[in-house]
Amino acid sequence: MEYLLPTLREKREVDSLIRDTIDKVLVLRFGLSSDSVCLQLDDVLYKSAKDVSRFAAVALVDVDSPEIQVYVKYFDITFVPSTIFFFNAHHMKMDSGSADHTKWIGTFQKKQDFVDVVEAIYRGAMKGKLIVSCPLPPERIPKFELLYKNV
Length: 151
Fold this sequence. Notes:
By secondary structure, the protein is α/β, with parallel strands linked by helices. The chain is 30% helix and 22% strand. The longest helix has 16 residues, at 111-126.
């Protein structure tokens, strides 16, 4: 899917996209183009990109790129795919019932799930919120456990 959606491999590309996306939600999928779960999410993102194009922009970020490791460490991306949302260069968070509100980990089950999440983030951002509640029912939110080493 990387040939259908813009793929970022350099830090300056990510920086400029975050900085230059104004009055739209910026959706960045951090992952690998060779991972099957990432490809499943890429398919959902591609199919939804036209539907959300009035209020969102979607891009893929390759976590294998050496320059992107700054973001991988900063956002603590340990699971791929991880999707991070921005609005006017502000990191948008979402309370989905998991321990990590900073990103969406895993894929969306349906195209409409992704559209609903992006729309909720957009509506919250337009009201000045930096964290929004997830509009999806709990059974459609991917589950994972955070394991802490040496804590």
